[in-house]
Write a structure and sequence with these properties.
alpha+beta, Ubiquitin-like (UB roll), L,D-transpeptidase catalytic domain-like, four-stranded mixed beta sheet, 30% helix
Length: 465
Amino acid sequence: MKKSLAILFSSIIIGILTIAIIFYILTVITYKGGFPYNTWVNGVYCTGKTVDEVNNELVALYDPGEITITSDYGKEEVISLSHFVEKVDFRDYLNYLSSGTNPYLWFINLKNWFSQKEIEPSVTYNREMVELYLSQSDLFKAFSEEKERKCYIRRSPAGAYELYKDDTPLIDKDSLYDKVYENLYKGAVITVDDIYFSEPDYKEASEAAIKEWDLVSDFFETKIIYDFGDEMVPIDSTVLSEFVTLSDDNTFLRDSEGNLLLSEKKIEEYVSGLCSKYNTYLKERKFTTHDGVDKVIAHSYYGTEIDISKEKKYLVNAIKTGISEEHIPAYIKEPFHRGLNDIGDEYIEVDLTNQKLFYIKDNVTQLETDVVTGKPDGHSTPEMVCFVYKKQKNAVLVGEDYRSPVSYWMPVHKGIGLHDATWQKKFGGDRFLTHGSHGCINMKKEDAKWLFNEIEVGIPVIIYK
């Protein structure tokens, strides 16, 4: 019995060993022509595969990446290196890896000695492809010699004549090809420095434009500045460009003496525009009261009136003779405060509805007082913008049915003015309805005296309801 068990046991052991030997031999045969068990390279499973088979798979998966070509002139080009690749080969390292393995020791790989190997290929780039691709790139086209650099006189978007000069430099294409090709194996950014660029040459027509501009450029420099008080208005290149004409051959029209031909009509139109902008005399006025209420006042006997005839003659002569100066225009009516807002920040307001007078200086109310204005029986004080055109002490106001001595007389329009009225027993409210003036603004004597001593002749007076 024991002998039979021993024979059975021996048979089993021999069978297991036989199977193991057969499995080992078969595995050796399997791995002898390729990579051993559990070999990975760049994420590719290589077990049992030949070097060529693994190489083909790795080449198919290989991404050569990209490079960025940039220059100091702002152009940038991002290019995939796949455009330039001629050959990719991993076999040098794969052969080395394969030669270091023993198919008879395949079981060693059970410990994952060779798993997840990362290797780099041998890459060959095609110089002709580099040149062909770069010649068609935006970088090359922007700076290539095939792009003609133009130079000519033109009206700028702002309306001024200027010399437009395309100063885009030329790129040395052969040097560019060399630099890019030599750096394909290096960094991801290739900077094309200034040494690869040169100044462009201009054609004959462009040279003529440069010469013409040299002759006329001084004309377009600002020489005359109009002083309107709050605003200084230069006769700048945009304005001057309206007065001359560029001919079809890219030169300016000239008179018989060779000077730029000026359009006096255009100059006069410009002066008319200035006058239209700044003249306010006899025009409807928009006014914001001290407490922020907007008023529209139809009649204005105060304001600006420029002498348009004198100014047209002045500007034509000044431009022709090249005068350089700040110029205050000639006025027929010169305001107390010069500028687009010729009422300024010092003025007198008379509120007919509320029977109040306000003296404003530096935009701050200096005096607020009750007054009595014209009686609404044909003598109402009119709404208007006017001004104090005289100051007189101890005057006698004379009308058809009155003769009134006053201590402080400040006329603002015709016979209407500001003055003390000692005969008024009270001021403000609705007294003007029964004891109103013949149109003047009656004030308390102490207020009239204070105002008389405070203001200057010419100060604006705004009367409104």
